[in-house]
Amino acid sequence: MTISLNKSQIQDLLPHREPMLLIDELLNIKKLFSATAIVNVKKDSFFVQGHFPGEPVMPGVLIVEAFGQSAAALTAHGLDKATYENKLVFLMSIEKARFRNPVIPDCKLELNIEAIRSHGRVWKYKGEAFVGEKKMADAQWSATIVDRK
User: Fold this and answer.
1) Tens digits of residue pLDDT in 8-27
2) Would you tell me how many other CB atoms lie within 10 Å of the CB of residue 105?
């Protein structure tokens, strides 16, 4: 059975809202292990006008943010709701981030993410971003689950 989440279901798990909620779907979810996130990079995305006028490119930091949101949604979906209630996931570190090709609007960016390990509230992940078969970026990162104030 393939588990997937739409944007509305992702909003139930994450505190992010437009325009900063970057992921549109979370597909092929393997509980607390891996998933594929979809980011529909549009011609009217909020960054297009200023990055860069006339030749828009999705900023690398937003690709990393999308990796982080995907991992947070994967983790939140896999944890018991009572365990995750009133929690936030914060990035702790970004390692080995490589931006291999520019992500141009009007594409579907697929983020294949995997949880490498967890220790208490600290999780480590890795991910690769693709447009079609072309690798656009990859990274490893750590995040922690914290109590909301």
Assistant:
1) 999 999 999 999 999 999 99
2) 15
Q: How far is CA 11 from CA 5, 34, 57, 78, 80, in A?
A: 10, 19, 25, 15, 17
Q: What angle do CA 39, 48, 20 make, to 5 degrees?
A: 50
Of 53, 71, 49, 69, which Cα lies nearest the Cα of 61?
Answer: 69
Tokens of residue 3, six digits? 């588990």
Tell me the whole-structure pTM to 2 decimals. Answer: 0.95
Residue 16 annotated among the catalytic residues of the structure:
no
Domain range summary for the chain, segments of one domain joined by +: 7-147
Which CATH number is 7-147 given?
3.10.129.10
Q: Which of 16, 51, 77, 119 is catalytic?
A: 51
Tens digits of residue pLDDT in 66-122: 999 999 999 999 988 877 888 888 999 999 999 999 999 999 999 999 999 999 899
Tokens coding 142 = 């750590």
